[in-house]
Design goal:
mainly alpha; elongated; 144 residues
Length: 144
């Protein structure tokens, strides 16, 4: 079997496994975060979480597929490891950037939700306090 084909197979197996692992980790931990962002609405948090995971899979699997091709033929074990290290290193970097982008977006959404909650007074205003009646001004009493 050609070593280039072996490189493709190993690359695909590792890249797909890494993508699935990262997506599941993000999904499991992101569900709690989304629930907080969406004020405890579990159905909406699950739906948004699922949409984010599908988008994550599409982007990463698309990149893995596009990055599959190899210009030079792999002729020995050394070239095999070098090709795999470059390809998997780039995939890991893309996964890391995607993860940071997801965390950044979710944090922005969370901050907006926290700001909205802080702007709402905890108790509805019950009326107005009347201003003191205007009268002659008296200076404060001397101290001492």
């Amino acid at each position: 079997m050609d070593l280039t084909v072996v490189a493709y197979i190993v690359y695909l197996l590792i890249a797909v496994a890494l993508t699935i692992w990262v997506a599941r980790t993000l999904s499991r931990n992101g569900k709690i975060f989304l629930s907080d962002v969406l004020h405890g609405n579990e159905k909406l948090a699950d739906a948004v979480n699922h949409l984010l995971v599908v988008g994550f899979y599409l982007v990463n699997f698309g990149f893995v597929a596009l990055y599959l091709s190899q210009e030079a033929a792999v002729v020995d074990a050394r070239a095999l490891f070098e090709a795999l290290s470059v390809k998997l290193g780039v995939v890991l970097l893309v996964l890391g950037v995607m993860h940071l982008a997801n965390v950044y977006v979710l944090n922005k959404i969370r901050r907006r939700g926290v700001m909205e909650r802080e702007q709402v007074p905890p108790v509805r205003p019950q009326g107005w306090t009347a201003a003191p009646k205007a009268g002659p001004w008296t200076p404060p009493a001397p101290q001492g």
